[in-house]
Design brief:
- The structure is a single chain.
- By secondary structure, this protein is of the alpha+beta class.
- The protein contains 8 helices and 12 strands.
Length: 261
């Protein structure tokens, strides 16, 4: 991570810095953390996109995920699309109710094959998650769309940023990926220079997200200053509107009557 892109004092003039700049620099340094990039143990806590196995095979379904079932030998199930009910079950022709919550698609396939073996010789069943509705990752900060996003098992940091769309004041060099946990030794925070990924194709830190991960996009120093200024001026906005709104209405009234004349 190139922190100097944000903290270079030359960007704010020479000599003395005002209190706003000093505070902003302190916040910038606090957000970026020590050093110029993630440490090895931090990186090892996350998985890169190219290092991961096909994680969809490890995805454990829960309500209200939607499953798509294919089976050339069993037309009763072939093409079935089922949303998992709150009790964790789906109802299928020929085999009836089947509890699938907590299983991977591969485990569901094997379970259905076992049930179908009463009717078919060596049936083959394929199950995939067509809609992942039970798991989420989260994006907050300086993005156009904050909040929860569906977790598919193949979501990378770049996927998350593309979906949430960082704003013009986003500090892309200091993106935080937070892996929360109730246990402190399993809680990890990684600061990533996403600018290098997006501008130069450096994908070494394009980590694979896990369910529940939080991506935080901080503002740039100038952006932080602007947000604080807007926060300070917010109580004065209604006062200003009280004076400007009647004046605008009178101006519109005059224009309207001038047009009539």
């Amino acid at each position: 991570m190139n922190v100097r892109r944000i903290t270079n004092g030359a960007a704010f003039g020479h000599g003395r810095a005002g209190p706003w700049v000093s505070a902003a620099l302190a916040v910038s340094l606090g957000l970026s953390g020590p050093g110029c990039g993630p440490k090895d143990d931090e990186i090892h806590a996350f998985v890169h996109d190219w290092e991961a196995s096909v994680s969809a095979a490890d995805y454990r379904v829960q309500p209200p995920d939607t499953l798509e079932i294919s089976s050339a030998q069993a037309p009763e199930l072939d093409g079935e699309i089922q949303t998992i009910r709150q009790d964790g079950k789906v109802t299928l022709r020929l085999v009836g109710e089947v509890k699938v919550a907590g299983l991977t698609p591969v485990e569901i396939s094997r379970k259905l094959e076992s049930l179908l073996s009463q009717y078919y010789v060596e049936p083959h069943v394929s199950v995939r998650v067509s809609t992942a509705g039970s798991k989420r990752f989260y994006v907050f900060g300086e993005v156009a769309q904050e909040g929860a996003f569906p977790y598919t098992g193949r979501d990378t940091l770049l996927n998350a940023l593309a979906a949430s769309r960082p704003t013009f004041i986003a500090a892309k060099e200091m993106i935080k990926v937070i892996r929360p946990s109730h246990e402190p030794d399993k809680r990890h925070v990684m600061v990533i220079d996403a600018y290098s990924m997006m501008e130069h194709g450096k994908l070494e830190q394009n980590v694979l997200l896990q369910e529940g991960d939080i991506v935080y996009v901080p503002p740039t120093v100038i952006g932080w200053m602007g947000l604080r200024l807007r926060e300070l001026l917010f109580p004065l906005i209604p006062v200003g509107q009280a004076y400007t709104t009647p004046a605008n209405m009178m101006a519109a009234y005059d224009v309207y009557h001038d047009d009539d004349d």
